[in-house]
Specification:
2 domains, Peroxisomal Thiolase, Chain A, domain 1, twelve-stranded mixed β-sheet, 14 strands, about 25% strand, alpha/beta, two-stranded antiparallel sheet, single chain
Length: about 350
């Protein structure tokens, strides 16, 4: 499916990752060829030599009262912080806007997994008496989007999508649809994920720990999408325009080349291309954008099922005036996404 988009602009973005707060640190690492990955402790999987992208410097109390932070899972803390940073970047004061016209669409892969592990451990070790009811609301994937809405006062559309490595891209597409249908003026879109040792043990047991693929990571990235008309009315500084979204459910046997050509089109050789999910592991896809500057944050801060929000934020931060940008995301058996932007479009 190839869907041209008109009348939707990006007015803000931000991220939290192993590199720190915001997109600048990730951009610097991508340009230098360095990374923010750290060794996975040997006792996690019983051997050394592997790395992950842990967000070690994040303090939730920098973004919300400590008592509120204690009631949230780690992914919700990421989401609340990044939503606030992205809104600030967009120059938005929600007190001046109808809350029902502002919403959020968030991708999630493993949101709430640490609380889910704690909750179930209590049951398996202590039966019903071992359960902790207070943490149950944080065991579900939609807790980050819900907590971000509660904390910032969004009362518009609120959805969470879990679609493998393209979870954030699926959320982005739905956010655009809400604006196109007139159900919201402003939508935050992106993804949030966390990473815990128990997950890594599971990945290892399933043979997913390799030294050739990008390591696993955690974090959150969001962009602020806004109808162009609304952005113009408030005199917003527009950072980019959304031009098109192309999606493919799977690569049909015998027609792989046709599908990949549809995704990449004819990218300008000067246009940066960001890669998310398993896109960086597809030689046939990379060949089609081999002349383009590449923004591969997976090998810089790690990858997760919903890291596409962070990848899009970094791509948008890299675009120059009028420059095209292409975001590619893939899951091993599909879906596949191509999202096209145009940098710094005046409304």
């Amino acid at each position: 499916m190839n869907s041209p988009i008109s009348g939707i602009v990006v007015t803000g973005y931000s991220a939290v990752s192993a590199a720190g707060i915001g997109t600048t640190a990730i951009q610097d690492l991508v340009r230098s060829g360095c990374d923010a990955l750290t060794p996975i402790p040997g006792d996690v999987i019983g051997r050394d030599g592997f790395r992950w992208g842990k967000v070690d410097g994040f303090k939730a109390s920098d973004f919300m009262p400590p008592m509120k932070a204690r009631k949230m899972d780690r992914c919700s803390q990421f989401a609340v912080a990044v939503a606030g940073l992205a809104l600030k970047d967009a120059g938005l004061d929600l007190k001046l806007l109808p809350p029902g016209r502002v919403g959020i669409a968030l991708g999630s892969g493993f949101c709430g997994v640490s609380n889910a592990a704690e909750f179930l451990t209590g049951y398996f070790t202590g039966g019903v008496e071992g359960l902790i009811p207070m943490i149950f609301p944080n065991t579900v994937p939609n807790s980050p989007a819900s907590n971000a809405s509660i904390e910032h006062g969004f009362k518009g559309p609120n959805v969470t999508l879990v679609q493998r490595f393209c979870s954030a891209e699926s959320a982005f597409m739905m956010a655009c649809r809400f604006i196109e249908e007139g159900r919201a003026d402003i939508m935050l879109a992106g993804g949030s994920d966390e990473l815990i040792p128990l997950m890594v043990k599971g990945f290892d047991a399933m043979g997913q720990m390799t030294r050739t693929s990008a390591p696993f990571g955690e974090g959150c990235g969001m962009v602020v999408l806004e109808s162009a008309a609304h952005a113009a009315r408030r005199g917003a500084a527009v950072k980019a325009a959304v031009e098109a979204i192309t999606t493919i459910g799977m690569l049909a046997s015998g027609r792989e080349c046709e599908a990949l050509d549809l995704l990449t089109g004819s990218p300008d050789s000067c246009s940066p291309v960001s890669l998310s999910g398993t896109a960086a592991d597809m030689p046939e896809l990379l060949e089609r954008v081999s002349v383009n500057p590449r923004v591969d944050i997976g090998r810089t801060v790690g990858r997760s099922l919903a890291m596409g929000g962070t990848a899009m934020a970094v791509l948008l931060a890299s675009l120059q005036h009028g420059q095209a940008g292409l975001h590619l995301a893939a899951s091993p058996e599909g879906p596949y996404y191509a999202i096209r932007f145009r940098g710094v479009h005046a409304v």
